[in-house]
């Protein structure tokens, strides 16, 4: 279920922006231009599906921190608007959620995010079908024959209808969209310090997909080696980055572990706790991108962190390979990684800039399309 388009307004440095999303989307730019806000907006959309949007915004500092800080039209309420077009069985669905501040007399904390409006619309090719609609505390969902019916439970202003709905009889598309959004995986916190979860053994449980913090990396490798018994891609990725080296994954007992053998020390196993930061981080990215089962959408925020420049081309090849199995979104400030992705994936990296104080993407038209002279290769991988 690919994401076709994303639109965000009123969120941090994103005044109003809409852009298409391809099989492989690459954003590159200097520090401070708002690349991470593009990434963060997608995390908030997932939080909406999980029913934790208000909590996620509160964790960012509340609405006073998350709202667009520039000038706003007078007479209009301050709102954050998040939207995505997601494909379901070949049909597009538009999900939109708007957050604002509590009214002065409302029974809420002063800067608590409040869900004001929400909708999910399916485009069937004949006429749009509204699967979910919410205005204030009232919400309806599509029932049998597409007829709107009350959600069936009272909504708090801090709750999303998409996260709260339970009875989905007659509306499988709504359930499919929510499950697809919950399946998105964001990798931005793959720590490599001494206490990193990546360096610790983990419980030996069949693990097809790497967790966001990488704590089950050893189980992901053990699943490939001992359950799937297919390590061709993994072995190739290791040799591409560390010629002559070998990943060792012992048969798990109660716990799974891994280590590396390097050609300079052929009889010495370097366990995870001994590996360099760059080596460990590359292995974690390999686990994220080569898992037995990849999520429907993978987002990487500055994956080049801690990596030696010589590892960027192997990383780019890993990312391009993963984009053949799932949809991948990369945010980076490394021109070298962006160039490698362009070379290996025939993708056009999009340069993120600040324009009049707002985050923008070079070549993006106001209508949400990229310039025609760039469009032929935009977002497509081999």
Concise structural overview:
This is ATPase AAA-type core domain-containing protein. This protein has 382 residues and is α+β, with helices and mostly antiparallel strands. It has helices at 35-50, 53-59, 63-66, 161-164, 172-182, 217-228, 232-241, 277-289, 312-322, 335-345, 372-375; strands spanning 3-11, 14-20, 24-28, 79-88, 91-100, 114-123, 128-135, 138-142, 148-150, 185-187, 202-203, 246-248, 255-256, 259-261, 270-271, 297-301, 327-332, 350-355, 358-361.
What is the CATH top level name of the largest domain? Answer: Alpha Beta
CATH architecture descriptor name of the largest domain: 3-Layer(aba) Sandwich
Total separate domains = 2
Order of helices and strands: EEEHHHEEEEEEHHEEHHEEEEHEHEHEEH
Arrangement of strands in the largest sheet: 2-1-4-5-6-7-8-9
Radius of gyration: 22 Å
User: In whole angstroms, how far apart are the ends?
Assistant: 19 Å
Give me the number of helical elements: 11
Looking at how many chains there are and whether they match, the oligomeric state comes to single chain
GO biological process, one term: double-strand break repair
Organism: Rhodoplanes serenus
GO molecular function, one term: ATP binding
Protein name: ATPase AAA-type core domain-containing protein
Describe this structure in words.
This is ATPase AAA-type core domain-containing protein. Pfam families: AAA_21 (PF13304). InterPro entries: ATPase_AAA_core, P-loop_NTPase, RecF-like. It is globular, with a radius of gyration of 22 Å. The protein has two domains: 193 residues, Rossmann fold, CATH 3.40.50; 162 residues, 3-Layer(aba) Sandwich (Rossmann fold), CATH 3.40.50. The chain is built from eleven helices and 19 strands. The C terminus is likely disordered. α1 runs antiparallel to α2.
